[in-house]
Amino acid sequence: MIKVVTSEERHTSDRCWIHSEFSFSFADYEDPSNAHFGCLLAHNDNTLMPQEGFKKHPHHNLEIVSYVISGTLKHVDSMGTEQLLEAGTAQVMSAGTGVEHSETNPSEGEPVRFLQMWFLPSHRELKPSYAFRKIEEDAYLNRLYPMVSGTSDRANESLNENENGLRVAQDVTCYLSRLESGKKLMFPQHEERRTHLFLINGHLELQCSDGNFDLKPGDAARIRKSCDLQMTSAGSEPAEFVLIDLP
Questions:
Q1: pLDDT in tens, 143-169
Q2: CATH number of the CATH domain containing 35
Q3: Contact, 26 vs 10, CB < 8 A?
């Protein structure tokens, strides 16, 4: 089964200082029929204006994954972390027993766009932790690069020697890919697993047992109990996307 959620179907939240597109119920958007996809609770596409941001606020028992698409995001938390996250950087914060953090745009003139994904952890009340990694483009060019993983088997099959994905306290793997025009990738989906694919830029053709689907920027596909997925970059520009394998 595959469900394509178009960019236009997402909930738009525009507060002037931040523009967000919510794929699932979040903040002022309440839809019980669209509350989560497995353990994926939130998938937000945020654009934060210069010199703006979220003041320090708490989280508990969440695995929070962020990926900076453009600009620079500043992260400060109660664990003593203060970090500038440039475009191409992935970040994982395990909130566990409780952590406070702020997210701001330090730039005076450039917005910062970043994806943020919330997952339920495999166990509650874990010790809070934080990690980040800048990902070079050649690491995910024309391949599925597991930038974040809570597993050691399937994700590691995609890693080259000396590569390490960020760890998350849940049985999920977040892959990043930049697929050049005309290139194809296969993803063998397991019967008991879910797949969430979100297209950041470009155009992507998705083929599976349910048929052929064309995705444009901001579109997502939610897939369950399907056959192997074939992804083809269909536009003149590369297709950049995040693919999440989850229970």
A1: 999 999 996 444 445 545 445 679 999
A2: 2.60.120.10
A3: no
What is the rounded distance in angstroms from the CA atom of residue 44 to the CA atom of residue 232? 24
Which burial class, exposed, middle or buried, applies to 196 when counting CB atoms under 10 A from its CB (0-12, 13-18, 19+)? buried
Which stretches in the chain have pLDDT values below 70?
Answer: 151-164
C-alpha–C-alpha distance, residues 240 and 179, integer Å: 6
- Cβ-in-10-Å burial (0-12, 13-18, 19+) of 216 comes to middle
User: HSE-up of 209 (CA within 13 Å, CB side)?
Assistant: 10
**Burial bucket for residue 142 (CB in 10 Å: 0-12, 13-18, 19+):** middle
Annotated binding site for Fe cation: 57, 59, 101, 103
Q: Which two tokens stand for residue 88?
A: 């191409």
What is the number of structural domains in the chain?
A: 1
Q: What is the extent of the structural domain holding 106?
A: 2-246
Q: Report the half-sphere exposure of 187 (CA within 13 A, side-chain side).
A: 31
The 3 state secondary structure assigned to 55-93 is: EEEEECCCEEEEEEEECEEEEEECCCCEEEEECCEEEEE
Task: Please report the beta strands in 82-144, taking only residues with DSSP state E, as ranges in sequence order.
Answer: 82-86, 89-94, 99-104, 112-119, 129-134
> Model-level pTM?
0.93
**Residue (of 112, 111, 122) closest to 91 by Cα position:** 112
Binding site, annotated residues: 57, 59, 101, 103
